[in-house]
Amino acid sequence: MLNEQVNKEFYSAYLYLSFANYFVEQGLNGFANWYQVQAQEERDHAMLFVKYLQNNDEPVVYEAISKPDGTWTQSLEVLEAGLAHEKYVTGSIHEIYHAAAEEKDYRTIQFLDWFVKEQGEEETNAADLIKKMTLFGSDAKGLYLLDQELATRVYAAPSLVL
């Protein structure tokens, strides 16, 4: 399950890069920046799982990363797809957590605690972005200001230490 999560995290990065490309095409470089940073975070999440597996002498198996499917016609659709994807990832983390608890694998539970918290933040950020887009996105000046706000997001490395 941990190996499968590696692939899911890399897919998340790939998906968010496709979102960033959509926003570049729309001339919304701030939104593109937000998703480029998000993609970098997801890549690092995958690498945390890889390092955890390595630290526990478990083989790491890389699978093919599927092409993100989705053609969006509106920016709000992209944001909603992002929230839906974060909920999917949260469910996946919860499934692994449940399996680790059944196996009394306390080391993995402790490792996953950080991801449970992180997914809460990810869902909140995605939902907040939808709220802001709903409030301000239909007004050109509001959309401009929101895009400028999102352009200021910078990458911060994960705080989890293995």
Report the major sheet. none
Strand content: under 5%
Oligomer: single chain
Low-confidence stretches: none
Number of strands: 0
Shape, principal axes of CA atoms: elongated
Intertermini distance: 19 Å
3D architecture notes:
- The protein is mainly α.
- The chain has helices at 2-25, 29-55, 75-102, 106-136, 140-151.
- The relative contact order is 0.16.
Q: Layout of helices and strands, plus pairs?
A:
Layout: H1 2-25, H2 29-55, H3 75-102, H4 106-136, H5 140-151
Helix pairs in contact: 1-2, 1-3, 2-5, 3-4, 4-5
Tags for this model:
mainly alpha, 162 residues
Sum this structure up briefly.
This protein is mainly α. The protein is built from 5 helices and no strands.
